[in-house]
Amino acid sequence: MEKLTCFLAILATCYASPQDLSGKMFTFPAETNTAHVRLIPTRGNFSAVTVCLRYFTDLTRNQALFSLATPSHSNGFLLFKANTGGQLTIGLQNQDVVFRELLDEQNSWVSVCGTWESGSGLAQPWINGKPGSRKQGPSSVLGGSPIIIVGQEQDSFGGGFDAGQSFVGLLADVHMWNHVLSYCEITRFANNDNFTPGNILNWRALEFNSVGNVVVENRTPEYCF
Question: How is the cofactor bound, in the record's words (predicted)?
């Protein structure tokens, strides 16, 4: 009976029902090499990607905002904020595409999106709805079954965490699409204005598993009326 109970508990963890996290956030209160949230995508194999999220932190060191790994690429699609102010790296199939002189704020909610498509190989960041430059990335499909994690960077498939690259702060509104969003769609996300949620990851219907010191709590409104 005890073995059956454990087995059922594992199944419940692995196949948690999607949750509507509207008005919620993940709080990562401490620097660790363990605390993270695994996000379960609806599918894999991507010829294009858009990832958008909002974060709040006071850190100025390197930290991972979003980490997608496949068996062949630990940095399949990575959003990585560098300790150099205004620098964001989009990691694509283990290739770093670096963007500089972007808007950089601490102790404030920041909207960030990263896009890439394999046809041209072009990647682009967006901070608070404002586009960065477009730069060359890989022009091959991102294949394989992905593991998606926030709170840590994967240096190996599903692991290899380094506390010095962990995210410390607040994270919300994580969405992922298997196509490149238009300028207007990204602007609507940045303004939280009736945007279409992600079809790969949807914050309003998110399947996830949290590990370690992560708190799911209500997001404090930016304005009181």
Answer: Binds 2 calcium ions per subunit.
Residue 55's domain comprises 19-218
* Count of domains for the chain: 1
Domain presence at residue 12: no
In a domain, 37, yes or no: yes
CATH code, 155:
2.60.120.200
Q: How confident is the model at residue 67 (pLDDT cuts 50, 70, 90)?
A: very high
Confidence of residue 4 (pLDDT cuts 50, 70, 90): very low
SS (H, E, C) the chain: CHHHHHHHHHHHHHCCCCECCCCEEEEECCCCCCCEEEECCCCCCECEEEEEEEEECCCCCCEEEEEEEECCEEEEEEEEECCCCCCEEEEECCEEEEECCCCCCCCCCEEEEEEEECCCCEEEEEECCEECCCEECCCCCECCCCEEEECCCCCECCECCCHHHCCCEEEEEEEEECCCCCHHHHHHHHCCCCCCCCCCECHHHECEEEECCCEEEECCCCCCC
In this prediction, residue 16 has a pLDDT band, given cuts at 50, 70 and 90, of low
13 has a pLDDT exceeding 60: no
Question: Of 127, 21, 103, 106, which is closest to residue 56 (Cα–Cα)?
Answer: 106
Does some domain include residue 91?
Answer: yes
This prediction has a pTM of: 0.91
Strand 130-131 to 88-92 pairing: unpaired
